[in-house]
Amino acid sequence: MSESTEVEGRRFPAPEQLTAEANVGPDVYQEASADRLAFWAQQARRLTWTQEWDEVLDWSNPPFAKWFVGGKLNVAYNCVDRHVEDGHGDQVAYHWEGEPGDTRTITYAQLKDEVSKAANALTELGVDAGDRVAIYMPMIPETIIAMLACARIGAVHMVVFGGFSADALASRLDDSGAVLVITSDGGYRRGAPSALKPAVDDAVGRTGSVRNVVVVKRTGQDVEWTEGRDLWWDDVVGRQSAEHQPESFDAEHPLYIMYTSGTTAKPKGILHTTGGYLTQVAYTHWATFDLKPDTDVYWTAADVGWVTGHSYIVYGPLANRATSVMYEGTPETPHRGRWWEIIEKYRVTILYTAPTVIRTFMKWGEDVPAGFDLTSLRVLGSVGEPINPEAWLWYHEHIGGGRCPIMDTWWQTETGAHMITPLPGVTTLVPGSAQHPFPGISAKVVDDEGNELTNDSTGLLVLTEPWPSMLRTIWGDDDRYVDTYWSRFGKEVYFAGDGAKKDADGNIWLLGRVDDVMNVSGHRISTTEVESSLVAHPSVAEAAVVGASDPTTGQGIVAFVILRESGQDSGDELVQTLRQHVAKDIGPIAKPRQIMVVQELPKTRSGKIMRRLLRDVAENRELGDVTTLTDSSVMELISSKLPAASSSED
Ligand code: PRX
């Protein structure tokens, strides 16, 4: 038996003590399926509403759902004020750790003051409920304060990951019509300050809607200044009163937009709203991680710029009055044990991260975590891509000391919160499978006609009932919302874009995207987006991009390009130029691992590029069926040119 089969066959029953003390028990599934809407209403009551809803769900006009119709609440009040009013003002909300080693401790009472001041500043700057505010920041507490300040006044935040380029920021500012940008001079990454303000200056200069730029001082580096437009956070927020009366908003009031890559070149602005979103992120955070607010120290090691950060660094943990850790920098700075040092220092009990990071730690070796005391950990989580059983087992043994259950959570920017996951204390764990739909969630694996598949047949993952934290639309494009997610199997079935299978025990195994979306280190990148970037370079006539499997990053980006002039230098220098071009255009995460200069691309008779064959080449596999190609010799030419797969690291 090979090692991987041995791993795949293993089962991990819930630890007895956890079963006895867990927040939820096995009855939760039965309870939720008996009356799904009553179940979600019960979870909504974990929040404080100023007005109770009249109806739990209005699904009369699918796929446009309304949850907790008529209900009113304030998200920031639920995340901060109510805990202070309940006597927990001195509890730490965040232990913040800067990359250079500086630290800040923020209690719930301090968070309330800071959010109130920032809310007053936004109002002074003329930001109204419904206005969009862009947040382009490093991982510092002001990022969270800014998000909560927006929520408090009903402004819609639109966080753009700090690793995205000026171009990416500009297109998001433009699409969302943001009136304000909150940014900083920069942040620390890999031991050095990185700049953010120049990208903001560039992007804002190209868009019409932004009136002001508020700048947090983090690194102290020099920044260009536009008088009348730019303001220091310390001035405009610092001078405000710490008193602010939160206003209640409708359950369906927009909370935020988060752009994500789809199958076309234009990223989609995923819109989340207030009541249903907060209900599901709070409840899933509490149930999936067995969060005990009085004793746990919780850490989602991700960036706030992604949905994982929104739901499980900010909204879920705060709604549950968690004490969290927030870390600014990279795992290897200043040494490869930085994460484990942080866990030892703060006695972290719950760690949530991505398989790509776990595989990197595996490469660095188990001696690194072995040098630290990780005995405080009790529950682990994984998100972003399928976790291969070997990585699962390594995480379980070398980080979890063999005692911590791993929650492999499947969800998406669009779903807002966990959708398929085991539950600690309940589920017997199966490494590599996300296992069961969360209580109150209906997921199926179906064939192309929509017939349900069980017994290990590979099909498509669909969600067959609406859920509270579902996206409500694509910003400004209802038609695209319907077409993208709710057209393949009719208007009441959500097509997730993922392949999946269900085994005889009812475990769901996620098999990756079935569309032209790549998953690189847990980040979604569209093949079309990278192709458009490449063809925008003057040297490139045509480009085809595929995601090839990569031992560390899950998938790596491999591009095939045809140059404009034959005879043009196609050497290494040009390849490097093109890689840099994409990094600048979209962001460093989109930089292709390899670029192959070719004479032709394999196309079907109808002119469609056959990515399947290119993927075979990129993964050094035997070529699949080439009979539908216009010219099958093209493939021989391409395969003969491909060098051995190179490392994705640089
Ligand atoms: O393909 C699935 C994969 O990540 C996609 C969603 O990406 P994004 O919207 O960026 O959100 C990432 C964080 C929630 C999904 O369509 N994915 C996410 N989690 C898992 C996963 N694939 C397998 N197992 C998971 N646990």
UniProtKB/TrEMBL annotation:
Listed cofactors: Mg(2+)
EC number(s) stated in the UniProt entry for this protein: 6.2.1.1
Modified residues (N6-acetyllysine): 608
Gene that this sequence comes from: acs
Similarity field: Belongs to the ATP-dependent AMP-binding enzyme family.
Designated name of the protein: Acetyl-coenzyme A synthetase
Organism name: Geodermatophilus sabuli
Residue numbers binding CoA: 189-192, 308, 521
Gene3D superfamilies noted in UniProt: 3.30.300.30, N-terminal domain of ligase-like (3.40.50.12780)
One term of GO molecular function: AMP binding
Record: residues binding Mg(2+): 535, 537, 540
Enzyme class: ligase
InterPro entries membership: Ac_CoA_lig (IPR011904), ACAS_N (IPR032387), AMP-bd_C (IPR025110), AMP-bd_C_sf (IPR045851), AMP-dep_synth/lig_dom (IPR000873), ANL_N_sf (IPR042099)
Domain of life: Bacteria
Processing and modification events after translation: Acetylated. Deacetylation by the SIR2-homolog deacetylase activates the enzyme.
AMP-dependent synthetase/ligase domain: residues covered: 86-467
Ranges of residues in domain AMP-binding enzyme C-terminal: 529-608
One GO BP: acetyl-CoA biosynthetic process from acetate
Pfam families: ACAS_N (PF16177), AMP-binding (PF00501), AMP-binding_C (PF13193)
Function statement: Catalyzes the conversion of acetate into acetyl-CoA (AcCoA), an essential intermediate at the junction of anabolic and catabolic pathways. AcsA undergoes a two-step reaction. In the first half reaction, AcsA combines acetate with ATP to form acetyl-adenylate (AcAMP) intermediate. In the second half reaction, it can then transfer the acetyl group from AcAMP to the sulfhydryl group of CoA, forming the product AcCoA.
GO cellular component, as recorded: cytosol
Keywords: Acetylation, ATP-binding, Ligase, Magnesium, Metal-binding, Nucleotide-binding
List of residues binding ATP: 384-386, 408-413, 498, 513, 524
Reactions it catalyzes: acetate + ATP + CoA = acetyl-CoA + AMP + diphosphate
Domain Acetyl-coenzyme A synthetase N-terminal: 27-79
